[in-house]
């Protein structure tokens, strides 16, 4: 693909900015951006990506849904584990905690990433000790927010591949073009990250077992970089299909779609919509043994460093296709349902695949997402992107 | 010479003999007895009525499947005066080569045993037994010191044996002519060329739909895929082995493959199979074998380092350790030209030495052996089921990949077929590679020995193994090897050393198997 972009130095004028959230915080409000300019974050993306705010938004959305559309519809938001924001919801948390004795909970700092500061506990005593513990106050100094932690019910029956000891979480990428009206894309590739050591509820102190963040895995004593603790999404999908059959897996992936769409809708009205902004989210999803997907976390700055050649190629493709959708060069019509490896998941309403003449026999609509399916993006891009005027088609 | 009908009755007798006393036999008897209580039964037509009822309840089908399975593993027909070794392998020089090879690997195993001072077998003390029982599902967490162990042999050692095979009745000149064979295999066996292979694999032709081609994204599913899946579901519900085998020739859908393969191999969910597996597990707990370390080492070196199979590490131990102790595997030596290795084990009193088959299943694992099991982990997650399927695949197909024989699916024939296909259809390439010291078989051998496991991406590998099962032959592996060379011919023509040739063919993970096979077999002019 012919791209002739020039990197801007220092304070020069820029048309496209792949910025980090720190820069955004400091500069967004002061920058004047011309109409064509694009920037890679929404001003208050943390409404979705900070754990306490996401929980708050999801709970509020769920309540609204229950009021407006009934319990059944609201139940479709039950994809995040029972979560409480601390310290403000401490008392409700304790009530719930006492109601289910013996269950395991996980404590997560709201604004940290890469698995820092996370621990598991089963007894209230553990967190009481922790609150008094001096080490926490250090982290608190970094936090501007008063509410800095969430306590979440730990998923004790994760789906384990090979029936034994490997926990894994799914990393899926979604590109947000606009919040109002909501336009979101889903990338076909993704991966399943395995924890490097064995799962067992008896070893909850071993954070290497339960946390599948690659950053944490890398520091585990027996981490072998050559080992590559990842499966491509295609592998996972095939494995699950071979085990559970086509229909079950189809349902599972529909459920996963549901997570993306509802989580985005829940923050739709809160996020400051700005047509300059777009955002690439990395969703962390966990499957339990009943093949129910759970939302663990959304990252606004998903790790784009690669741990292997295959990983590098995935992230490269992902970025390339992101840039195609952002479409600085104006090559798209805006009516596309697919760009490279991205499928249009939601466009102010559900998106269905184009029903070809041949398939008219089947009258049901098919959702336009193809997570874990074949990603023949090169061919699609060649057909989609017209060459620049005067340029020979390669 | 036995005529056909006499041969048939011999086969029938053999099969009946084998099925007598099996679990299926007692179940059928029980079912027949229960039929007697049914009101439809009349004394005058007793036999026919019982037969009819057994058919309606699906028991006849089960018997059919069992007979079908026995046909797969029936030893070749023999002359009453021919010794069994001659029936298994008619060529004397092959028999001799196999015997020598066996001696070598046994010697290697025994010397390792003496060097390291580790007994071939040892009873575990009770605390160790308990520990192993607790750790059974996560043996992969163990990190025993395996540095002293080396694999007994690697595929390249075996290749040297095959290269050295010579037919004493055949004088071969050293001259390189158009008529001579340019490859490494120096024996002449009857192997199929492309026209003959086309006849053998008609369903791979251009006019047939295939999974691996016609389920591609841009092909509308109504053209082939939907109908094929529909038929697949019917085949599974009919529980028909023969139908499943025929069906598999055009590929198995991912969601049905596990059941289809299970049908083809006639591995049932019988409690008998589960009991057998549990017994093997108990044997593993009670005794430690030297070969266990070889298995550990192999898994750690191969499957654990694979990007996709590392997840199944524990399953591999659970299957392979049991496999070593399964004496039922010895049955396959009825048609395998190899003989099970025997070692001298000290008896309890210490005074006598008796020769016993070691390892108990007669199969000494080599470097890469665990890769035969790894792809199956994608399909089966109950260890006993996984075990049954693997064992059946081994005794039908995989054993032929590491014993010296003239069988058309044997490794020698496969290598020769690969070389001949290449020489006939890509002579320029073959010549060029020869000249730069890169004999094609040196590169392709490792693929063939493992039936491409670990070299292709998993979904492609499973499509290939669909056809191995469907056609009951490993020849497709040789054809694929040639097709891969044909595909990369342009790049290979540019290389100037063995190392660069290896580099061109190092990564097969992006290859699509079925289009390659189809083009090579049906779209190449002959």
TrEMBL record, chain A:
- InterPro entries per record: TTL/TTLL_fam
> What UniProt keywords are attached to this protein's entry?
ATP-binding, Ligase, Nucleotide-binding
Q: Which Gene3D superfamilies match?
A: ATP-grasp fold, B domain
Q: Name one GO biological process term.
A: microtubule cytoskeleton organization
Any idea what this protein is called?
Answer: Tubulin--tyrosine ligase-like protein 9
Listed under GO cellular component are:
ciliary basal body
- Name the protein family: Belongs to the tubulin--tyrosine ligase family.
Question: What's the source species' lineage?
Answer: Eukaryota, Metazoa, Chordata, Craniata, Vertebrata
Q: Name one GO molecular function term.
A: tubulin-glutamic acid ligase activity
Record's Pfam families?
TTL
PROSITE patterns cross-referenced by the UniProt entry? TTL
From TrEMBL, chain B:
Fetch the Pfam families from UniProt.
RabGAP-TBC
Which Gene3D superfamilies does the UniProt record give?
Answer: Ypt/Rab-GAP domain of gyp1p, domain 3
Question: Which part of the chain is the Rab-GAP TBC domain?
Answer: 251-472
User: Can you name this protein?
Assistant: TBC1 domain family, member 19
């Amino acid at each position: 693909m012919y791209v002739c972009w020039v990197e801007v130095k220092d304070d020069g004028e820029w048309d496209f900015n792949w910025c980090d959230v720190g820069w955004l915080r400091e500069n967004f409000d002061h920058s004047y951006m011309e109409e064509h300019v694009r920037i890679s974050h929404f001003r208050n993306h943390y409404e979705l990506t900070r754990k306490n705010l996401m929980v708050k938004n999801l709970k509020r959305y769920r309540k609204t849904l229950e009021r407006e559309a009934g319990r059944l519809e609201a139940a479709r938001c039950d994809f995040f584990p029972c979560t409480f924001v601390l310290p403000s919801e401490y008392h409700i948390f304790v009530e719930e905690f006492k109601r289910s004795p013996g269950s395991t909970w996980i404590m997560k700092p709201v604004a940290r990433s890469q698995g820092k500061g996370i621990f598991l506990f089963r007894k209230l005593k553990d967190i009481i000790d922790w609150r008094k513990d001096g080490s926490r106050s250090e982290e608190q100094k970094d936090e501007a927010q008063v509410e800095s932690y969430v306590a979440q019910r730990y998923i004790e029956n994760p789906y384990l591949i090979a029936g034994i000891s490997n926990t894994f979480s799914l990393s899926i990428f979604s590109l947000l073009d606009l919040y109002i009206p909501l336009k979101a894309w889903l990338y076909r590739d993704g991966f399943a990250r395995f924890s490097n050591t064995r799962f067992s509820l008896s070893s909850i102190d071993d954070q290497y077992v339960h946390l599948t963040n690659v950053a944490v895995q890398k520091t585990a004593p027996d981490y072998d970089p050559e080992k590559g603790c990842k499966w491509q999404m295609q592998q996972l999908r095939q494995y699950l299909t071979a085990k559970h059959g086509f229909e079950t897996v189809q349902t599972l992936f529909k459920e996963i779609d549901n997570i993306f769409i509802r989580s985005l809708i829940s923050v739709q009205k809160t996020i400051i919509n700005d047509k300059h902004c777009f955002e690439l989210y990395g969703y962390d999803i966990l499957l339990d043994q009943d093949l129910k997907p759970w939302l663990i976390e959304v990252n606004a700055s998903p790790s784009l460093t690669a741990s292997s050649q295959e990983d590098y190629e995935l992230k490269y493709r992902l970025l390339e296709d992101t840039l195609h959708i952002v479409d600085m060069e104006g090559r798209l019509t805006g009516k596309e349902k697919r760009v490279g490896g991205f499928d249009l998941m939601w466009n102010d309403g559900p998106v269905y695949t184009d029903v070809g003449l041949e398939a008219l026999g089947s009258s049901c609509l098919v959702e336009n997402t193809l997570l874990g399916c074949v990603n023949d993006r090169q061919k699609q891009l060649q057909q989609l992107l017209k060459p620049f005027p005067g340029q020979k088609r390669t | 010479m036995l005529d056909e009908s006499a041969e048939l009755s011999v086969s029938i007798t053999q099969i009946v003999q084998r099925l007598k006393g099996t679990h299926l036999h007692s179940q059928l008897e029980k079912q027949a007895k229960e039929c007697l209580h049914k009101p439809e039964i009349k004394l005058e037509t007793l036999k026919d009525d019982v037969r009819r009822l057994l058919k309606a309840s699906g028991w006849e089908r089960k018997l059919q499947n069992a007979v079908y399975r026995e046909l797969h593993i029936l030893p070749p027909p023999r002359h009453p005066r021919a010794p069994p070794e001659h029936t298994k392998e008619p060529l004397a020089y092959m028999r001799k080569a196999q015997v020598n090879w066996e001696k070598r690997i046994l010697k290697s195993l025994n010397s390792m045993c003496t060097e390291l001072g580790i007994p071939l077998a040892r009873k575990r003390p009770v605390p160790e037994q308990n520990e192993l029982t607790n750790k059974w599902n996560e043996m992969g967490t163990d990190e025993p010191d395996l540095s002293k162990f080396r694999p007994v042999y690697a595929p390249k050692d075996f290749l040297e044996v095959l290269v050295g095979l010579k037919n004493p009745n055949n004088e071969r000149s050293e001259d390189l002519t158009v008529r001579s064979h340019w490859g490494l295999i120096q024996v002449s066996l009857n192997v199929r060329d492309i026209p003959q292979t086309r006849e053998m694999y008609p369903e791979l032709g251009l006019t047939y739909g295939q999974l691996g081609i016609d389920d591609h994204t841009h092909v509308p599913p109504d053209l082939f895929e939907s109908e094929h899946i529909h038929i697949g579901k019917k085949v599974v519900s009919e529980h028909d082995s023969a139908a499943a085998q025929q069906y598999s020739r055009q590929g198995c859908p991912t969601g049905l493959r596990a059941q289809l393969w299970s049908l083809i191999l006639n591995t049932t969910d019988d409690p008998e199979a589960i009991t057998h597996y549990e017994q093997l597990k108990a044997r593993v707990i009670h005794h430690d074998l030297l070969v266990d370390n070889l298995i550990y080492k192999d898994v750690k070196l191969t499957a654990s380092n694979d990007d996709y199979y590392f997840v199944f590490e524990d399953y591999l131990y659970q299957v392979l350790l049991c496999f070593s102790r399964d004496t039922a595997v010895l049955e396959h030596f009825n048609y395998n030209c190899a003989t099970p290795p025997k070692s001298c084990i000290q008896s309890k009193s210490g005074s006598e030495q008796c020769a016993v088959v070691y390892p108990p299943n007669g199969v000494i694992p080599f470097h890469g052996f665990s890769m035969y099991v790894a792809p199956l982990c994608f399909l089966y997650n109950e260890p006993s089921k996984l075990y049954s399927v693997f064992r059946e695949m081994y005794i039908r197909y995989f054993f032929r990949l590491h014993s010296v024989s003239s069988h058309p699916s044997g490794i020698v024939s496969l290598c020769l077929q690969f070389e001949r296909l290449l020489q006939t259809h890509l002579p320029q390439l073959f010549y060029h590679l020869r000249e730069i010291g890169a004999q094609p078989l040196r590169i392709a051998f490792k693929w063939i020995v493992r039936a491409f496991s670990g070299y292709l991406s998993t979904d492609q590998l499973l499509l290939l193994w669909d056809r191995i099962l469907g056609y009951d032959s490993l020849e497709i592996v040789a054809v694929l090897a040639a097709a891969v060379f044909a595909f990369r011919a342009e790049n290979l023509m540019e290389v100037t050393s063995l190392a660069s040739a290896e580099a061109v063919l190092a990564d097969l993970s992006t290859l699509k198997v079925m289009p390659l096979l189809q083009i090579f077999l049906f779209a190449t002019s002959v």
